[in-house]
């Protein structure tokens, strides 16, 4: 009988930097994200302590493209994935290791929006699967035109169906 094993990571934290989107030579999207998680506790003497862990998070394919479009430094997110450790030989001849979380799911936990007066517009190229010769998808920033803004409407709480 084969024994089972489990490699699962669940994290809630804040992004430490903007995502970096790249493409492999075969055209697969890969996005790297820095994520910080905090732990708080009180010592026996009553002193409050805090510890921060920094994680390297990697998303692939469509999830990578979505992460690069939706995430910015400071956002709070939930990620679910698995640990992967890579070993390589550095230029100085020493062996190096890095451990990262390869995510399969990501949920936004806050409602941060682009700065006032700007909106992110996703181009058609960012939705299409790029070829290895294409550059990464572009997200253009466009100033909102004052005349095209709709006036805000007052919402009556009694009109909300839930």
UniProtKB/TrEMBL annotation:
Region of interest: Disordered: 123-162
Subunit structure: Homotetramer.
Xref: CDD domains: SSB_OBF
Any one GO molecular-function label of the UniProt entry: single-stranded DNA binding
Database matches in PANTHER family: SINGLE-STRANDED DNA-BINDING PROTEIN (PTHR10302)
UniProt cross-references to InterPro entries, sorted A to Z: NA-bd_OB-fold, Primosome_PriB/ssb, ssDNA-bd
GO cellular component, one term: nucleoid
Keywords of the record: DNA-binding
Entry-linked Gene3D superfamilies: Nucleic acid-binding proteins
Transmembrane segments: none
Record-linked Pfam families: SSB
Basic and acidic residues biased stretches: 139-153
Superkingdom as given in the UniProt entry: Bacteria
Bias (Polar residues) ranges: 123-138
GO biological process, one term: DNA replication
Species of provenance: Candidatus Gottesmanbacteria bacterium RIFCSPHIGHO2_01_FULL_46_14
Designated name of the protein: Single-stranded DNA-binding protein
